[in-house]
Design a protein that fits this description.
single chain, alpha/beta, Rossmann fold, UDP-galactose 4-epimerase, domain 1, seven-stranded parallel sheet, two-stranded parallel sheet, 11 helices, Lipid_A_modif_metabolic_enz, NAD(P)H-binding protein, NAD(P)-bd_dom_sf, Epimerase_deHydtase
Amino acid sequence: MKQTILGAGGAVGIEVARALTAYTHDIRLVGRNPKKVNASDEVFKADLTNRDQVFHAVAGSGIVYLTLGFEYSTRVWKTQWPALIRNVIDACLEHQAKLVFFDNAYAIGGNHVNHITEDTPFRPSSQKGQVRAEVDEMLLQSIAKHHLQALIARAPDIFGDIKVNSILMHLVYDNLVRGEKAVWLCNADLVHSIGYTPELAKGTVMLGNTADAYNQIWNLPVDQQRITGKEWIQLFAQALDKNDAFDVLPAALVKELGVDNQIMHELFEMLYQYDRDYFFDSSKFNQRFNYTPISHAQAVQETVRRLA
């Protein structure tokens, strides 16, 4: 059975392709300029903002993984995400393919992030969160009303040796490697869950290849040890044999920097994830699969070793 990755060139898509070889070697990688991850991969060039090309990319697939990441821009997200989800849903329905949507937790806002489970209600407190809540609802409605076979595989922030879109890697790892102080946002003494990309990808394909996992939301496997921003910095400093000194960027400074820095501008509305405890609970997954996620410390050490 062919398993297809839409958005195969990003950090998550690459790791999903690697993890899929435990289940199949009939893997199709779809993107603007897809490159093989495994020797037997099929590469399929497509513009996934084009409805017809989405349908062509999905045709012949048994399972479709949506791991695409658009530019980190509220403006882009508002126009591109709803259209993409509608097209992917329609293509999967027409071609009778199952859909696995790799999602973040942006639809959950405010103090609900203190303890995120699959039952935590969608209460977005950001514009990007509103977009994610909209597309999640579209998918859940298609499951309920149109019998789409699909699941939402949800992750917190990510880190790993593929550093794209990882705040932890850019503000902590990169700074430490340069001999500079690490940087954290808002308050380094608060709990902050972060997922290890290879582990998240492994969980995603486990769900995709488990028949009774469909038609529901899953939080992907993350070490359940509650550690703070300061402790994340200490783990990386120890692994790199660097000083664990760090600076904290308060919200006001992030807003000021956002005047000239687009990433900081877009990040400002997401600071509710850093100014209070943020804990991502994956106990549903861990219990269902009798699974123990890789520890934070081991994941950090593995990341540093891969980048050495």
